Amino acid sequence: MTQRLNYMQHSPELVKKFMDFSLALKSSVIEESIRNLVQIRASQINGCGFCLDMHVKEAKIAGETELRLYHVAIWRESTLFAPRERAALAWTEALTKLPEGGVPDELYERVRGQLSEKEVSDLTFSIMAINAWNRLSIGFKNVPGSADKAFGLDKAGLN
Questions:
Q1: How many domains does the chain have?
Q2: Residue span of the structural domain in which 68 resides
Q3: How far apart (Å, rounded) are the C-alpha atoms in residues 19 and 13?
């Protein structure tokens, strides 16, 4: 697979603003481990190989276990995720797939049972960001692993 174009080169001012937004999410009230799970799950749903590769490596570097990484795709059946993580993953799936008729109230209430209003709001911005990055990477065919050295992802030990 060959990358179609380098959007960073063609739209540097927009990429910088979007990067600033994405970096601001790191100081949100949502813990890194949940942000990592959300990025992985949305990237799986969207079929974004570049982002999935990147976020699995980031999660591994942050201390996530390999078994939990393997189980993200089957989180409903897995016993490895806490209720708070399950709520975040359910919200991620709903906002990534955007069901016809909108997100059901029952799901929102279930998520609110685990997360505060501030947490749901911050989580939603994280989900928005990863979905946008997925669209950039899929649209321009970013090659999985091609940015490992630039982002320090070679430290994950996943080759």
A1: 1
A2: 31-141
A3: 10
Q: Coil, helix or strand for 79?
A: coil
Is 58 or 3 the better-scoring residue by pLDDT?
Answer: 58
pLDDT digits (tens, 9 = 90+) for 131-158: 999 999 999 998 898 888 888 888 888 8
- Tokens 């991620």 correspond to 92
**Residue-wise DSSP of 51-118:** HHHHHHHHHHHTT--HHHHHHGGGTTT-SSS-HHHHHHHHHHHHHHH--TT-S-HHHHHHHHTTS-HH
Spatial distance between the Cα atoms of 73 and 130, rounded to a whole number of angstroms: 16
Using CA atoms, how far residue 96 sits from 1, 10, 27, 37, 56, in Å, is 25, 27, 22, 14, 18
d(CA 118, CA 100): 26
Q: Closest by alpha carbon to 28, among 118, 94, 146, 133?
A: 118
